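Throughout our pipeline, every protein is held as a single compact record rather than as scattered files. Such a record has a labelled line for the sequence and another for the backbone structure tokens. The remainder of this section carries one protein's record, kept here as part of the documentation:
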Amino acid sequence: MKVPDFAEPMAITEEECRKNCLDNCSCTAYAFYVGIGCMQWSGILIDSEQLPLDGTNLYIRVPNSEHDTKRGFKVAIASTVSAAAVLLALCVCLCWKCIAKHKGNEQQAKLSRMEEVHKVEDMVTVTMNQAKFEKLPLYTYEALANATDNFHSNKIIGKGGFGPVYKGKLFDGLEIAVKRLSNSSTQGIEEFMNEVMVISKLQHRNLVRLLGCCVEREEKMLVYEYMPNKSLDAYLFDANKPNILDWRRRVIIVEGIGRALLYLHRDSRLKIIHRDLKASNILLDEELKPKLSDFGFARIFGGNQDQANTNRVAGTYGYMAPEYAMEGRFSEKSDVYSFGVLLLEIVSGRRNTTFYSDENELSMPGHAWKSWNENEAAKLIDPAIFDLGAITEMLRYIHVGLLCVQESAKDRPDVSAVLLMLTSEISNLPRPKFPAYTGRIGFSEKSSRQRAYTINDMSLSSIEGR
């Protein structure tokens, strides 16, 4: 089987995993995956399927009575009688359909669609309750429609893989940002539930605050605090905007992002791997302080787990660590790689992808590594912020960025070490090794992994914040 989402990993043996699940009344199922270990689930099992290859055995908890032979005999008799009744009912139903086939088809189809929608809504609501989201406010569709002028196009302040983001104002005057799952979204119910589950459990000054959600009708919407200065890429890469991000502001932004990652990896009661760290997912408040957003692809680690594998690679080209993009392995070091790319972008003021248009067709890490080795790293610095008085600090940021994007995950520092390096508390920095993606390489076409990528070039279309 492909195991369900939202597993609770445990660092125990397979036999201990089985016993632990049997002794826990709330345990719905368990599995033991070589390389990952024990995984358990409670409540509804979401997104599980039988695979022709790979996968693992999924053990589902059932009532003890189903193992009783006498009970099984009675069930067999009851099943036979039920089958006969079903067959009779089917015959009646077929006759009725022949008589009324031109009258009720459209209405029946409509009712079926409504039932499916209600099933999904019920699943979302039940799962949310079982995941202990009782304290998360549920907004009505009418309230959010009124707040956004019935989701008027003029209220759209951004777009991404999830769908459009609207600016709104509630009845009490509170400004909000509403992420609305669109029908054409590359993400879906899994990412919606994942984002709710992850961010509803987190609180940090550098994480965007989730105010609530809406699961009425056919809608799936998330309600966030409104960020008036929208995302970092709007100021970092837009040459037409006035340069308000001087070096000091960029230092504050880098440190804020680093503290958010440190909280996710080490300081929160859950260990979270973000998996989609990039400039467009860094929102800026009224003081231009950063807040990390978009947890649709985030994953929770448990116990002593330090890495995991997935058949569904999700994220954005240019920010993915090589072991994740090629093999589906992700860990803290995957986020560190993304942070390194982001760090180089903040110092240079250039988007990672713009380096592919250069003659040498080097990526951002490759271009920075080449410049650093030729003692020309200063040429990488954004001319708009170049300051001889801060040149040493700027070069240190480039050096740390190169340490973060090294090809091997074990060579990259963790986030706590990165923050110490940036603040000069670690004075002697190691020499960076060869970075990943030095040339303009593609991803393996032979890979059978399913991939989901966020839309990185659509988040700048609005002149408003979000």
